[in-house]
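Suppose a colleague, Dr. K., hands you the sequence of a protein chain of 375 amino acids and asks what its three-dimensional shape might be. Before reaching for any lab equipment, you can write down a predicted structure in token form. Begin with the sequence itself:
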Amino acid sequence: MPRTWTQEAIHRIERDYQRSSDTHLLLLELPAMPKVQLYIKDESTHPTGSLKHRLARSLFLYALCNGWIRDQTTIVEASSGSTAVSEAYFARMLGLPFIAVMPRSTSPSKVALIEFYGGRCHFTDDPSQMYAEAQQVARDCKGHYMDQFTHAERATDWRGNNNIAESIFQQMADEPNAVPRWIVVGAGTGGTSATIGRYIRYQGHMTQLCVVDPDRSVFYDYFHGRDASITIDQGSDVEGIGRPRVEPSFVPDVIDRMMRVPNAASYAGMRFLERLIGRRYGASTGTDFYGALQLACEMAGRGESGSIVTLACDAGDRYLDTYYNTAWLSRNGYDLAPYDAQLQRAFDTGTWSDVGPAGAPARPQKIDAALVTAP
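The predicted structure, expressed as tokens, is then:
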């Protein structure tokens, strides 16, 4: 019976969850800022190696409980990255076909990961048509279009149920500053920031949420101007975060502050973090770290005590041919040296310096005692 299959599918996903321990929360010492603690929640330790494992699990449970997925349903997603990898994992677990619709320019390493979990890749020559193409593929095979960008903010139970926010606060419970002053995340679908922002308010915490946005992403401009129609022709070079259009799952009103982070700063951030803790992460982790370190310097400049939590989104071995490849950086015009110097100064002195227009570090930034909040 269909209901029996659905119940078993949900149980399979829950059993997989029970076999997985929670992700680690790493403390990064900041000797120049002893009153500020910086924590990194390492989401790369999920079975599929990224933060998107949580999203994929929630999307499958949401679709199963809504009756959208049944035995032999083909799952279709518009994704060339970690979401597709994680969804392929869960589709294989349930014995379901999976098709990822992606630009033809997607790196072979990402294609290989999706295929490793039994998924099939459907390529499109025009990235702007990826969503429409995914919908058409789902119609043609009478499958289910998962549509992460619409359903991410509603598929996760933001009140708890071991979502990422609840996990952070549980792991922080015995730390010196148990309630973080800031949580710093990027936005791809917007689901993670929506979950964390809602949970903070639901629990009555005074924690503020900062969302960091890379170059060529509309979220920063949308946050400040609230024009949902804005688009750009080319997406971010930071995989996993930043979007060329405002996604339905992005909820600006739960965000307290947004930062624009240059792509070169994101790449410098991930490499700098590797030197500090000996682990390689992707560029979105570099974006998170760059924003978190700036906030730490601002807190230190005001003489504040407190903690900051940010995310390590996925492992760096997925990006050896791009972000960790010097030739790729040079070919794409990225100079990391000014941002590396900026990060080193911040770490060594607790002082944040802007990077000047020519790429050289400028004078130290004056810290305004007033907090930046949503308009």
